[in-house]
Write a structure and sequence with these properties.
Oligomer: homodimer
Number of domains of chain A: 3
Strand content of chain A: 25-35%
Radius of gyration of chain A: 22 Å
CATH architecture of the largest domain in chain A: 2-Layer Sandwich
Strand order of the largest sheet of chain A: 5-13-12-6-11
Number of helices of chain A: 10
């Protein structure tokens, strides 16, 4: 039986029993999944959770501290959600960061199976796991990447072998190329003495309003991330209205990062001062006609039962309001377009009180 | 014996035993002080803590909710620290908000005794307590009011009778006038239908970089406060460098208030967007040559033992570094000028890590 008190939870997807780690336990990461044989009696496979990538606040000392004089790969960090894709007993499964089999992403994975010819890959490497970022119309990011067309897209950033090790970065890019698998963009290989080129890459990503970069040693064992201020500003603007439901430091960490980035990369201070203030005035402008603190989502599913399962999963955490379900044709596929909202209760209550002139003790 | 577990602490000042409430207990407020007779056996007097004043985030609905059609007084809110002044067994005592007898403020109270002829008042009203805001060179506000000359100044905002009730606002102003006692400025008496005049007062205080207003029913039992965005901006700028030692919400509450104020009072959005961003860039500019997160103070004391007692009191909470002690003459009085710093450990450690390029998981 799962050790519920220590943070292991038993769940079921499509007749398949699995356990998920709801917390880090010892060296086992939150989101680790244990898969069972068809009898549901015998655990047969462990899919490790994805390790947290450390963030640095200043690029120059960060790169030196992490990599010294060693080379590292720079990949673009895409702004989506983290998914592990694998085949278990003939079923294609998509696991979220938290270790849930996501009914929505797993359904889309079937589309990717065709689109990316995943069968060719998994027939050769049946026990490998594809770690990737998922972008497009999805139930987890309300800020969707605007460069992505309607639908859902997968970009590999790690491949795990059957022994639980990640492929070396170099080998991974060779493999995705030979199988024509989708991948996050590789921006190059660097050493810390080429910091000015890294600054230039980040200025460029910032101008294009891209999220940021991940730096990796070839083994993927030393990894760090760095995000652009335009991303941080957008996060601030779009999340102010949920502020009382965010973890402490969500806003202030981003403000600190923006200020440090503007200085380290010699961006125009006046321009960023004004952008920063604007993010606040614009973010709070929703209070002018406030009804509730919510995030709107628009997704595409094939089967009504996929939306039902997803809604049940999401409702365990935040109340979900379905606004619209309608049949559409997407890329030649008959699908359902679902509009829904997540409603954030604490922020809704607090902002209503504030707007009605309640007094607060602070 | 004090009920330590429930948050009552026994302390001593100048041979005088007292208890302070370290927390709210039932209806007794944190900061309430119980004074003893000379034997130290019998509690003889209770000085209630100062009640928290509720803050409203929007003026128009706030005023209506608090006062309906009833009149209320508007006082300027001065930006200092809250002190209760009283005479107990021939000793003049200054109690801080937390219920400490402050050796520094109590020493200055002797100067005020002369300056404001407090004897005339206390001989007639020996059991009254003067509640006031203290401004000037002090160990509690590093952001001192720039309009105040060197030294320390007291401004009454409530007077408590021996029965524990506050004087009515109208009676209080009569009393302070007849005894020529120092007082917070009264800005007028209003009703909620004159909201435009209140907006004008607040725009004016904001332009003058004053802290804000307190609105009070004549009994002082309905009270609310409202602070200007210039004050909030200054608080943000000056406290960013201590951020990891601040309570959660310190920065974000101020950002929300500023945004709401700018809209409600129709201030220039572009100007405030840029001021707001500037507060962050300027506040974090201290990281360019960072050594530690600290606040600098400059105070004047008469006796070395006063500084010793104060330092002991302060050191119980934040490490204190004394930078300089020198004799000076202030307003004809021989005094010691003391420069010291409070060092904030958590912020110091976090910022050092950040600047050295450590990785953080968030």
């Amino acid at each position: 039986m799962p050790d519920v008190e220590r943070g292991v939870e038993q769940r079921e997807y499509n007749g398949l029993k699995y356990w998920r780690y709801t917390d880090d336990i010892g060296t086992t990461l939150r989101g680790t999944v244990i898969l069972f044989d068809p009898s549901g009696q015998r655990p047969v496979r462990t899919i490790p959770g994805f390790p947290h990538i450390k963030r640095v606040y200043r690029l120059r000392p960060g790169v030196q501290r992490f990599f010294h004089t060693n080379p590292f790969f720079v990949e673009e960090k895409l702004d989506g959600y983290n998914v592990r894709l694998l085949v278990h007993q003939g079923q294609l499964l998509a696991l979220t960061r938290g270790g849930f089999v996501c009914p929505f992403t797993s359904e889309w994975a079937e589309i990717w199976w065709q689109r990316y010819k995943l069968g060719r890959f998994f027939v050769t490497y049946p026990d490998y796991v594809l770690f990737g970022e998922v972008l497009g119309d999805n139930p987890y990011n309300s800020q969707r990447d605007p460069t992505i067309p309607p639908g859902l897209y997968f970009f590999i950033f790690e491949i795990m072998r059957s022994d639980g090790e990640f492929l070396r970065v170099h080998d991974r890019y060779e493999l995705v190329e030979s199988y024509e698998l989708p991948t996050v963009p590789l921006l190059g290989q660097f050493t810390s003495d080429r910091i000015d080129e890294l600054f230039e890459i980040l200025r460029d990503l910032n101008n294009k309003e891209r999220e940021g970069v991940v730096f990796k040693a070839n083994t993927s064992k030393k990894t760090m991330k760095f995000v652009t201020p335009r991303t941080d500003l957008r996060d601030i603007r779009d999340n102010l209205i949920l502020e009382f439901d965010l973890e402490p430091g969500f806003i202030t960490n981003r403000l600190l990062r923006i200020s440090l980035f503007v200085r380290e990369l010699s961006l125009k201070e006046d321009e960023f001062a004004s952008r920063l203030g604007r993010a606040f005035l614009d973010g709070y402008s929703a209070l002018e006609t406030f009804e509730s603190s919510n995030e709107k989502y628009n997704i595409y599913v094939k089967l009504p039962k996929t939306w039902n399962s997803l809604r049940t999963l999401l409702s365990g955490y935040v109340p979900i309001k379905t606004d619209r379900v309608e049949p559409v044709v997407l890329d030649g596929l008959e699908m359902l377009r679902v509009e829904f909202r997540r409603v954030f209760r604490k922020s809704t209550r607090r902002y209503r009180e504030i707007l009605r002139g309640y007094g607060h003790i602070d």
